[in-house]
Design brief:
single chain; 325 residues; TIM Barrel; 2 domains; 3-stranded parallel sheet; 20% strand; disordered N terminus; disordered C terminus
């Protein structure tokens, strides 16, 4: 328990103030208010000169107005199979295996889906990923170090792919999970509009929903979209609004958020135009909290992260939502 002396000694009987800091890492229950006994021992060398016993009061304050909170997971993987169906590298096997990226994300989603008190979750799933999992489940060939290895159905990566698809069906069926699909081939949508292929956007959206629905066994939410790469521009916003999209899940760098003096979520921003979209934008403060975020973290620590301020970057309306996505 470190101590710091304040003030100067004027005589042997002068008063000296000490400022003492107490770490809460050990010995304090972070979820329950309590009174803890503390003994202060003043020593000269090893001899005790005086002691003081005092209580340490720890109060857990419930928020008067709890923050609305949502999560967004993007499950995706680039195309790694050749025209003949052979997988060109084992990266998807690795991602599905123990310690792999997709393995960890799916396990976290299973934990959230099994908790009826957990916050709502939006899962944006890539049809490209699902298609590759479907190919792997049936058995596949993969090229490693110039050699082709055959993996039969039900073994190795094929078994991992089958289990991942089953887990995704379980996740999609949970009442607190909302599943959306990325466009079929996950193109950057502004590049389609900019290249004169705006008509293909609707085809990409519809085909992506069809493929995703087939694999996960549930209908995709059609009015919510996580744009690939979270990249948007004004023509894209107009086109997506005309295609029936009403809510966009974007990244922290998609739009510029103004600084807030007390760190609160930004205000709703409204501008007039020919349509409306809600853009849910995670705040940087919420992103800084993410490394310690877990469904198992006590609620008082989760409440210490404030989330989000959605804004729109064009002449569309943006509503304020909360999201640490």
């Amino acid at each position: 328990m470190p101590a710091r002396c304040r003030g100067k000694t004027r005589s042997n009987r002068a008063t000296r103030d000490f400022e003492i800091s107490l770490s809460l890492e050990q010995g304090i229950d972070p979820e329950q208010s309590g009174v803890y006994p503390v003994k202060l021992d003043l020593r000269s060398g090893i001899a005790s000169v005086a002691e003081l016993r005092t209580p340490v009061i720890f109060l857990v304050r419930e928020p008067e107005i709890p923050l609305g909170l949502s999560w967004t997971f993007v499950l995706a993987h680039p195309i790694v199979f050749a025209p003949d169906g052979t997988f060109t590298d084992p990266s998807l096997e690795i991602a599905l295996g123990p310690g792999g990226r997709l393995n960890g994300e799916i396990r976290a989603l299973l934990e959230l889906a099994s908790d009826p008190t957990a916050a709502p979750v939006d899962v944006a799933v890539s049809p490209v990923l699902l298609t590759q999992l479907g190919r792997m489940r049936q058995g596949y060939e993969v090229s490693v170090g110039g050699e082709t290895r055959r993996v039969p159905a039900g073994e190795g990566g094929a078994a991992l792919a089958g289990q991942a698809l089953e887990n995704l069906r379980t996740i999609a069926a949970a009442p607190n999970v909302e599943v959306t699909a990325l466009p079929f081939s996950a193109p950057e949508i502004p590049s389609l509009y900019g290249g004169g292929l705006g008509r293909d956007v609707v085809v990409q959206l519809e085909r992506g929903r069809e493929v995703a629905s087939t694999f996960v066994g549930t209908e995709m939410v059609e009015q919510i979209l996580r744009p690939p790469g979270a990249i948007l521009d004004e023509p894209t916003l107009r086109g997506l609004s005309a295609a029936g999209i009403r809510t966009l899940l974007v990244g922290p760098s998609t739009v510029e958020l103004p600084e807030q003096p007390l760190g609160f979520a930004g205000p709703a921003t409204t501008s007039l135009g020919d349509g409306s979209l809600a853009a849910i934008v995670p705040t940087h403060r919420a992103m800084r909290c993410w490394p310690r975020w877990s469904p198992r973290i006590p609620s008082w620590r989760r409440r210490s992260c404030s989330a989000s301020s959605p804004r729109s970057g064009s002449r569309h309306r943006a509503k304020s939502e909360a999201s640490p996505s």
